Amino acid sequence: MVLRYLALVVLLTINVQSAHAIDVNRPEVRSFIDKMVQEHQFSRKQVKAVLRNAQTQQAILDAISKPAERTIPWYDYRERFLTERRIRKGGEFATAHAATLNRLAAAGAPVNVILGILGVETMYGDITGRYRVIDALATLGFDYAPRSAYFLSELEQFLLLAREQKLVIKNVQGSYAGAMGPPQFMPHSYREFAVDGDNDGKINLWNDWDDVLASIANYLKQFDWHPGEPVLADATYVGSDATTVSPAYSTGDIALNETVASLQAKGFNFTTSLPDTAPAMLITLQAQGGPVYRVGFNNFYVITRYNRSPLYVNAVYELGQAVAAQAPTTP
Question: Is the pTM value of this prediction over 0.85?
Fold first, then answer.
């Protein structure tokens, strides 16, 4: 009995330490409140009340310090997303929303990529996050030094979005990073790229699928998607100088720093309809049997604006292709 009591005390202590209310008297918190009052005419009392209700959570800090894109190899990452269940669900989703997808395709949107993004992000809306967005953004903005500026900016955008959309802040849930709804838009992306896909006078990225699909299409378009151009090409290395082969990219390395011709000159053999001068980048993926090479083009780079990980883009691309095969009515 004593041991059970001690175990309960330890558990309660851990839970108390893992989440605590934001202290509105901290200098950085006061500075944020001042900004919302002075630049956006929020009530000081209102912002304080919102932040007092927010909680710093250790689980959020733990999650952002070890995202899957940086901790597992491609072959494990791929297995998480290219599952029979996810592909089947994607095919069902594509069939159910074929009319909207065909309309977007006619306007030049990459339907397969949109389907891949929705599948990787949230399993077509099934897994949209279990954290309160206010907790996620406040935790990362005030207590995650490496990217504090970015998340404070997103916290600012979230409060503006909540005012515009009349959201009940304490009820809005999302990912550990504050991404929301089936497309996992951050607050800034919601305000800048979300569109009214069904022309009902409202933008709803939680349960209006016309808005969700049209908003992802608009996001890609605004980052310079080239309709009809390829995303990537499989490549083999046939050169003699192994030093030309790059390791797997980190999020800071993503750039179209080559061309079709320059990569071919370095010993990479691949086929593409793009001209020799087309910008390109080498992608090295870790398969179980050794490295796998692919060449990414402009549209590959565009998808990295959604998530800055080559693993993510490859999973989106492959899942989208697999889902399209399950739903032949989808363009």
Answer: yes
